[in-house]
Give the backbone structure.
Amino acid sequence: MSDSAYGSLYVVATPIGNLDDLSPRAARLLGEAAVIAAEDTRHSARLLRHLGLERPMLSLHEHNEAARVAQLAERLVAGDDVVLISDAGTPLICDPGFVLVRELRHAGHRIVPVPGPCALVAGLCAAGLPTDRFTFIGFLPAKSAARRSRLEGLAARDETLVCYESPHRIRDTLDDIVSVLGERRVVLARELTKTFETFLDGSAAALLARMQEDPDQARGEFVVMIAGAPPKEEHEQTTLEADQLLAAALAEGVGVKQAAALAARLLGGTKKSWYARAQTLKDGG
Ligand code: SAM
């Protein structure tokens, strides 16, 4: 359905802290929109006020997104341009908008990205971890067992891992990274583009110690970036060391489960994989 009389949906990125990061193009489109679909209209009203704009707004969040699709499609058909924004950063990136974009694209509407701030990109471009390949995992599960199991599933990946985390869970998540990934390098980007922007770099255990010393380091919003699994040769070396470690622990009467936990803590990798290796060694393999 491409008809130039129809309006377009503009997916517009807004600041993640520093209001100067809003692009002139984004500001112009916000000012021209027939309607702005916003995750939280009260929150976005502050941004519009800051820009000296007053435009009609409509809420679009996870609970009403599906119901809004037909309504916004009608506006486009009537020739109105619609702007989609979220509370911060790029819509659809851990924010509402996916259902709307999927359905409108399916129906043949014109959808225009207006790029700008995105916390994961801001974190990655200053972290000093490889960015040629990375996996973005959104938010890790809230419960520790599910979180550990997700991390275990990612432990062998050799690209940089990136996730979002809230101040309520940052310590628990770091704890789980210590248990599952051991000494892996982690870079924490906190409060990006804001007054207290901080990058912390080290093992998850070292970052936890830093938060213990200075609880302010656990405040604010976080992008957590984790180095990928070490290259193979290093891993083979690790396996040799692990065999020695596991064999010594077993010889001292330590159980297979505890020996595996020890190896995972000291050498990285998953407890599950070290468990299998410890069992083989115990069985005389
Ligand atoms: N759409 C946003 C984007 O483009 O980055 C992300 C929205 S998601 C609901 C919010 C999460 O993004 C926060 O919990 C935090 O992990 C991360 N985040 C957002 N702003 C941030 C900032 N200024 N500094 C660090 N992390 C931030």
About this structure: Strands lie at 9-12, 35-38, 57-59, 82-85, 111-114, 134-139, 160-165, 185-190, 198-203, 222-226. The chain is about 45% helix and 15% strand. Residues 120-226 form a domain with the Methyltransferase, Cobalt-precorrin-4 Transmethylase; Domain 2 fold (CATH 3.30.950.10).
